[in-house]
Design a protein that fits this description.
Number of strands: 20
Number of domains: 2
């Protein structure tokens, strides 16, 4: 498995990163915000996400088991189930609500998510090779204790006032890979179906998409309040995205406050 190559930083008003598609990509952010001392999750080969919270070790009392191959078979159902607990919360990063959740997540042992920013749940690069995605988004959890965990303040920065844009996307495919790149806007507040903004088959091993004149111009933008999701979809069952690398140039801007600080960028972790 290739290692992740990722650099997220400001370049004027931009955010730049490069990522190997056979790397575990961020699917969902999760955080425990309940009153108990420990909050954690795990994902196992049984396709179950197990949420746990207790005052002992975070590995004793189960709050909810989310069966991604049975009841909770889409990413929208998974994130809604997490948020319905009232003590855990989550938002999507590299997936649409309608995407299947079965065989989607990478296995992870018991992992705390009772932290300031929560924890990232990643895609499984070994089984989830047909659809791989990442996002430009301003979503971020904050959780700041105020005199102790029994009296805390919690925040959730969202895309409500933000315009997420893509300026340039460069894809380097392997000879064996054939993919369609799709760009969606996803309104995670109203839970509407993702809107396909643009789609194109990648016909060569090296493909670059950018504005009409120069790469620094806006190529495509979401409407205000939407996450910009970029997905690569294998064209046939035999296509393998292993070894493919994409490079992106884009930015997130708050229409009221101006440029969003780079620390709020959760599209690539």
């Amino acid at each position: 498995m290739s290692s992740i190559h990722c650099a997220s930083h400001l370049q004027e008003r931009n955010k730049v990163f490069s990522i190997a598609l056979d790397t575990a990509l961020p699917l969902m952010q999760i955080q425990y915000v309940g009153p108990l001392l420990f909050g954690a999750y795990e994902f196992s080969d049984t396709n179950d996400i197990v949420l746990k919270a207790d005052d002992t070790d975070g590995d004793t009392t189960t709050v909810l088991t989310i069966t991604t191959d049975a009841t909770y078979t889409t990413m929208g159902k998974v994130v809604d189930a997490v948020n319905a607990t009232g003590v855990f919360r989550a938002f999507l990063i590299g997936a649409k609500r309608a995407d299947t959740s079965t065989a989607k997540f990478a296995d992870v042992a018991n992992t705390t998510c009772r932290t300031d920013n929560g924890a990232t749940m990643f895609a499984n690069p070994d089984t989830d090779t047909a659809i791989l995605g990442f996002a430009f988004t301003n979503q971020k959890f904050t959780y700041r204790p105020n005199g102790g965990w029994d009296t805390f303040t919690k925040g959730w920065t969202k895309d409500v006032n933000c315009i997420n844009s893509l300026k340039m996307l460069s894809a380097t495919l392997t000879i064996a890979a054939h993919a369609n790149v799709r760009i969606y806007q996803c309104n995670d507040e109203d839970k509407a179906a993702a809107l396909l903004l643009w789609s194109q088959d990648l016909a060569s091993t090296v493909e670059e998409l950018h504005g009409d004149t120069v790469p620094e111009e806006i190529f495509i933008s979401c409407s205000r309040g939407n996450r910009l999701l970029i997905q690569f979809v294998a064209l046939t069952a035999s296509d393998n995205l292993t070894g493919c690398v994409i490079r992106c140039l884009g930015h997130t801007e708050d229409v009221a406050a101006g440029l969003v600080p780079d620390s709020n960028y959760t599209g690539c972790v």
